[in-house]
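Researcher: I'd like a structural prediction for the single chain below. Treat it as a standalone chain; there are no partners to consider.
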Amino acid sequence: MLMRLILASLVCYIWRERNARLHVDAPRTSLMVFRDIVSCIVSKVKCIRDMASLITNRRLHIMCVFYDDILNLI
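Model: Treating it as a single chain, here is the predicted structure.
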């Protein structure tokens, strides 16, 4: 999954830079493009990690509620 994310970010940012150079005449340095790509990947990974922790916390919460209900029945 990470490799697909990296590939998608690379293609997107390189294509944007290509179009900017063809149509806007405002080329950026390769370092600037690289920093944009890295920051995009890092932010997406953080978002995925946060979503995973939310899902895990929700599952734990559901399990705790379920066990509390069972204990209340006994």
